[in-house]
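Recap from last week: sequence in, structure out.
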Amino acid sequence: MVREKSLREMLRDERGDVGLVFKVIVGVVIGVAVLGLLLMLLNVIVIPGQKEFVISDWNVTGATGHMDRKTIVLGGDSADDVTISGKVSSTQGGYVEGALVEIRGAGCNNATTTNENGEFELKCDFKLGGTPYAKATIGFQADEFLRKDITIIIKAEE
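Predicted structure tokens:
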């Protein structure tokens, strides 16, 4: 007759230490988590079976606004007609046409889609409302599975 082992017995070896199976499972989980963090830091989305895309050529114009490393600096407490533009392209070399690009926060709520060259342009009226800074989110969605949100800071010029 074959004796059934408990889960605890299966995960321990003959010395009573945690077994190889458990160590492999923990190693795989940690590896996947580290890979996910690295991809977030690279500002690239990777979904198996889907295209990857990157956002580049950021530009902010209008009023006295400008953008530096995900921060839009306004000339004062508010800025009207600030234009945010950029390009959404595939890491496989092409542009992403028809991707939804939207911005929400700091008094702005606007959306558009990319053109045949992957380019987008959004106009916003930013308002800080007496606070030193505000957060806004720019969202990019290429299809139902492929979405990326980038948090940006809107602040008054110092």
